[in-house]
Amino acid sequence: MARIARVEFLMIDLKPKVKRVDAIQSFVSQETPIVRITDADGAVGTGYSYTIGTGGPSVMQLIQRTLAPAILNREAEEIERIWRDLLFLTHATTVGAITAIAMAAIDTALWDLRCRRAGLPLHRLAGGAQASVPLYTTEGGWLHLPTEALVEDALRAKAEGFGGAKLKVGRPVHEDVARIAAVRDAVGPGFEIFTDANQAFAVDQAIRRARHYEALDIGWLEEPLPADDIDGHVRLSEATSLPIAVGESLYSISHFREYLQRRACSLVQVDVGRIGGITPWLKAAHMAECFNVAVCPHFLMELHVSLCAAVPNARWVEYIPQLDAITTSGMRIEAGRAVPSEEPGLGIAWDFAEIERRKVDGSGFVAA
Description:
- This protein is α/β, with parallel strands linked by helices and 368 residues long.
- The chain folds into 2 domains: 4-119 and 351-367, Enolase-like, N-terminal domain (Enolase-like, domain 1); 123-349, Enolase-like C-terminal domain (TIM Barrel, Alpha-Beta Barrel).
- The protein has helices spanning 56-71, 79-89, 97-118, 122-125, 147-159, 173-187, 203-214, 230-239, 253-261, 272-275, 278-290, 301-310, 352-358; strands at 4-14, 20-21, 26-27, 30-39, 44-48, 133-137, 164-168, 192-196, 221-222, 244-246, 267-268, 294-295, 317-319, 327-329, 332-334, 337-339, 349-350, 364-367.
- Strands 6, 7, 8, 9, 10, 11, 12, 13, 15 and 16 form a 10-stranded mixed beta sheet that branches. A 4-stranded antiparallel beta sheet has the order 5-4-1-18.
- Helix 5 packs parallel to helix 6.
- It starts with a strand and ends with a strand.
- Residues 147-243 form the Mandelate racemase/muconate lactonizing enzyme C-terminal domain.
- Keywords: Magnesium, Metal-binding.
- It comes from Labrys wisconsinensis.
- Pfam families: MR_MLE_C, MR_MLE_N.
C-alpha cells in the first residue's frame, strides 16, 4: 500500500452533442468535476462525476475545502474506510446531491488508482461477471423531437444491433401513446421500448398513463413520480403490470433498500455519479441481486459498462455519449453490446491535454 500524496481537482463544462429535452428540463450543460489522486509511489488514479448544469462550483468547493485535504496521507487502498470517513465528515450535508457528486469524484479516482496498481481493469477487479452487456439508446428519444425522428432513430439503433430505445414521455397522454405506438409499429415486437417521465407525474396521472402504455408492451416506465414519493411508487407498482424503474435521483443505498423492501420498483438505475461512487454503487447492485432485481444504470456509459460487466444482475447499459471530447477512444461496441476495456483502471482513455485546455475556474491541488 501507499499513502495519498497529492490530490488535484478541476472542472470542465461539456455541451451535449444534441439537444436534450425531457418532461421537466432541458439538458444544456454537463459540468464534470475531475479528480486525480497520486500516491507516494507515483501511481495516479483519475475519477470524475457530473451535474447537468447547476451546482458544479459548489461540488468543487466541497472537494477543495473539505474532501481533498481529508484524504491526504491516508492509505489509498483503504477505499471503504475513506468513503465511510468522508460520509461522516460531511454528515451535515448528507444525504444530498452536492455531497454525493463530490464523493463520487474522489471514490472513482481511488478505484482507478487501485486497478492501475493491481494491473487489472475495473470490471475484473470488481467482480468479472459478464463479458459484455446489451445496449439501449436514449440519444434519439427526446421529448421535443417529432415522431418521425423517434422512429428513424429507433430503426437505426435496431439496425446497429442495439436491443432497445428509450422515449421521453410527458406530452398529453394521447400524444405519448401515438408516439410510442408509431415506434412500436416500426420496430416490431422484438425490440424493447422504454419510457422515461423524469418525475413529472402525480400518482393518479401515472396510474392512468400506465394503463394506456401497457397495451404497447413497453420495457419499463422510468421515474414516473418524484423520487422521494415511495408510497406513490408502491401504489403505482400495485396498479400496473409495467415494470417501474427508479434510481437516477437516489443518493443513498438506504433509499434503494427502502424501494426494494417495499416492492416499489421493478429494477434499479443506480448512477455511480449520484450515489457517491463505485463503493456504494456495487453495494446497491448486489443488494438488488438479493431481491432478484436487475440493475440498469443511468447515464455515464463510459464507466457503467465496466460496473455492469462486474455484476451478474446488470441487464442494460444506457447509450448516451458523454466523454468523446475529452477521451482518445470511445466505449467499445460489438453487435449492439457494450464491451468493457481490458486496460488497467476504469477503462476510460482520458485526453489530459484537452481536459487542461477546457478547464474552468476553480482548479487546484493539495499535497502532503
